[in-house]
Amino acid sequence: MSLIKKMSWVGAVAGVALAGAAAWSPPASAESAAEVAVKAAQQYKGQTITIVWEAGLQALDPLNFSGPKWEELTGIKVKVVEVPIAEMFTKIMQDYRSGAGAYDALNVVPSWMPDLANAGALEPLDPYVEKYGYGPELQTIAPTYRDNQMKVGDKIFGFPDDGDVFVMYYRKDIFEDPKIKEEFKAKAGRDLTVPKTWAEFDEVGQFLTDKLQPKVYGASFFRQPPYTMFMFEERFRVEGGKFFDADTMKATINSDVGVKVLTDMRNENKFMPPGVEQFGFVENLAAFLSGQTAMTISWPPYGRWAAGYGTDEKALSWVPKSTIAGKVGYALPPGGHPQLAAGFSLSVSSTSKNKEAAYLFIQWLNSEDISMQRVMLPTALRDPFRDSHFTSTEYQNKWPEAKEYLATLGEGAKAGLADLSLLQTDKYEEVLRQMVGKLWGGEDPKAILDAAAAEWDAITDKIGVDKQKAAYNTWAANSGAYPK
After folding, report:
1. In this predicted model, what pLDDT tens digit does every residue of 115-137 receive, in sequence order?
2. Is residue 298, in this structure, part of any structural domain at all?
3. How many Å is the Cα radius of gyration of the chain?
4. Does any domain span residue 53?
5. pTM of the entire structure?
6. How many domains is the chain partitioned into structurally?
7. Looking at residue 43, which CATH number applies to its domain?
8. Is 413 within the bounds of a domain?
9. 109 lies in a domain?
10. Residue partners of 25: CB distance under 8 A and separation at least 6
11. What integer is the mean pLDDT of 425-440?
């Protein structure tokens, strides 16, 4: 693609080929991790590795950029198996249990890692990291991703590879309008500012809706259960909640904090667009880009698309045309600890017949050199996750506000909260998704949470309290488990 610069080191390595399974020598210290991976991988020229990737835009990275470039550099073909994210865990486990070894490299949502690693489906990466000297570059991954999305126990099972983090987007032109500021101060007794607490969000959101209707609502969010589940996990912790009693493993989501969060979430729909309860990722995006809403929270792509970055690409033709380019500001969500919602880490299948080649591919993908190019792809949805991504001059010049955008992502990477990650995490998440549906259906928040907590307790009992307690306490000790 036109935005990708040809790598400066291609010429230096393109003519180097290692015959057959020739012994590989340790890298010279001056070589980058990308160069090391390319040189070592050339001994596998002519082979094919298969990688599982989320279907859709995400897969355009290996299909159109990284896969063809890897083949050009090493002679190794990359077969991309596209799988909807809702089916990825099951497909990976099915391949492992069958022993077929159909997959070599994997994209793994970090919260799945304990289940996959404990089952034996993931190859420990520590020996490869040491052999190919990748440790120093792993340290330049932003700490919150590195510390929460890489290891199970003391072993590395995946390389954090996607800086998924929630960001608040707001209309600067509205927040800076002198008349609106004057009227807000007269009513609230304070200056109009971007909300830093949920109480401020409620006050500002209601005021803007009252002031700007019928053209603009104060805010909107995606409200479909799979998305709202992440927003609940974040907000519950920001407001002081804990998921479990660490001693008994009894669920504590039905605490006073949980009831307050659900009650406030439902009340906030009143100053959002009609039908917001059905908003998904695209509906919420359309409302914001059309200028219908003054505030929203979502993943990093919203910020790029609001500025118009890359939306002229054919693959992004479905993205509504932005009417607010140049008017959007970026901030952390209220509470200052955004959810690192979903994301991906790169792993190697334990049943792969090409483990070394698969490892070298993911080291190359994840490296400083290549990841910088991948996160700037307009279509591929990989978001910045390395310290160097947030400070890249090239990226900061992609649109006028890109520097502020990247700085906010960097702040989120420092303060972010990791998704809950347990044994059989999805069973607990399914309860949360059902909980959200009941909330929009009008059921009582306390009754909803009491029922959800009882279901969580039943899941824990079935798995085994002691086993789940050990998994939870390991997760809770991580830097991104609860606000510090």
Report:
1. 999 999 999 999 999 999 999 99
2. no
3. 23
4. yes
5. 0.91
6. 1
7. 3.40.190.10
8. no
9. yes
10. none
11. 96
